[in-house]
Amino acid sequence: MSDILLDVRDLTTHFRRPDGLVYAVNGVSFQVRRGETLGIVGESGSGKSVSVLSILGLIGENGKVVAGTAEFEGVDLLKLNRHEMRAVRGREIGIVFQDPMTSLNPIKRVGQQVMEVMLVHRLCSKQEAWDRAVALLEEVGIADPHRRMKNYPFELSGGMRQRVMIAIALACQPKLLIADEPTTALDVTVQMQVLSVLREAQVNRQMSTIMITHDLGVATNLCDRVIVMYGGQVMESAPVEEFVRHSAHPYSRALKSSILEIGSRGRKIAPIPGNPPVMIEPPRGCPFADRCLLVTDRCRDEIPDLRIIAQEHVVACHRAEEVLEHVAQ
Fold first, then answer.
1. Which CATH superfamily does the domain covering 4-328 fall into?
2. Reduced DSSP (H G I as helix, E B as strand, rest coil) percent helix, strand, coil of the chain, to 5
3. pTM of the model
4. pLDDT for res 1
């Protein structure tokens, strides 16, 4: 059995708008190993969520995957028809969306929604699904699960709704769990509780997880490997320890400098100047060029290849070695 559960190669997704195309994802490649947690990090609009939703066939009607492959246990998800994809979603791959208030059905009780995925995939009887749903709610930390099964989503707090979403995603014992900004709009204490639930579920089930987040701290504390995306492209990818010690892309360094870390007393926050690009033209050069302090003419005119600079550490930057040399000084 291969150690690689999901293998995405050269994924390219466009969206059609009245004024032309949006080049949302441009040749993205990554792998997810069995049992590991992969973090995908970047600002809003960097292509993180669209990349994963493209793989699952969940982009809008104006979106289209125009190139690439996404092999899940040897099967290319991008070649599956709608019926075949429905057999994979929820059953083999679970997903926790970033806004549970809009993701949960407001007119269905919580219990119905947790049970639904098990009944749709015909995994058990209705009574067995009920018992399993109660156990899942208890597992994700919801007190009095029997009573909560009869509640509607609006009767729950934001943190509890997110726990319900996690229970739904775990209901069919998926091999891969995708958590898309799972702590959005939650306060810090609840964020940590939700992330702890996700981590515990991943360890107990030995499943793979993709954690999509704009929070670099979440990625470096919970994930085994990190991918940094910007402008619909992979800027850098490395194991977490390597990434923390030897980030080699100016964008990765800028992200780290824009947040406060424990033990960084006296260091000023350095915001990243400018704004992320609006991808309404085909990629030309490095997408970070307009905001990069090390930009050259080559950066603006030539898209940097994703190249190996250390074991399992790849970066798309013409000046990566200079970045590392500067950090080492």
1. P-loop containing nucleotide triphosphate hydrolases (3.40.50.300)
2. 40, 25, 40
3. 0.92
4. 67
